[in-house]
Fold:
Amino acid sequence: MIETHRLTVVEHPLVQHKLSYLRDKETPTVHFRKLANEITLLLTYEATKDLPTEDYEIETPLEEMTAQRISGKKVAVCPVLRAGVGMLDGVLSLVSSARVGFIGMYRDEETLEPVQYYSKLPADLADRDAIVLDPMLATGHSSAAAIDAVKEAGAQSVTLVCIVAAPPGVEHVHEQHPDVHIVCAAVDRGLDERGYIVPGLGDAGDRLYGTK
Structure:
């Protein structure tokens, strides 16, 4: 695993094995969806490893003991529509009590700039750790704009979970939001002339939903 205080690249063999199938152009939609959620679950495990815990007294079938439970702020999960929704179940399978918000964002294919068209976020974001889901961190503009929206709604602590990133995207997010921790499965070589990650895995939304 590659880790700094602002970037974690999860190189666990299971993550990389599943990512290889996710990248493969022959992987059908039904398997792509399953793999995206499985990878997100594993990334969420890393993204939440620093959540604070507190002592909690319980009784097992054999005796009383002091166990550990998560304390402090709760979690809000905010997928970026539409592709981020394909990661949502992976997070909720681990953090089932999380509140869910949605940010509608698309990239203008001419300017490569993000356009927000929808936002529905939990009212108590200031009291929660926010996890923004965006599968592809390419130029970083859409992810940074989504983080803007979450912070404007009150979030004080934000983590960005993506599947594949490119160096320009990581750099842009950290320029705009130096406090945000990025967790991903890979940082690829770069971007092509259309702003797509290479080698990447194609358009995550199209591959999740079978559209072209």
In short: The first strand starts at residue 2 and ends at 3. The chain has six helices and 16 strands. The two ends are 34 Å apart (CA to CA). The first helix runs from residue 13 to 23.
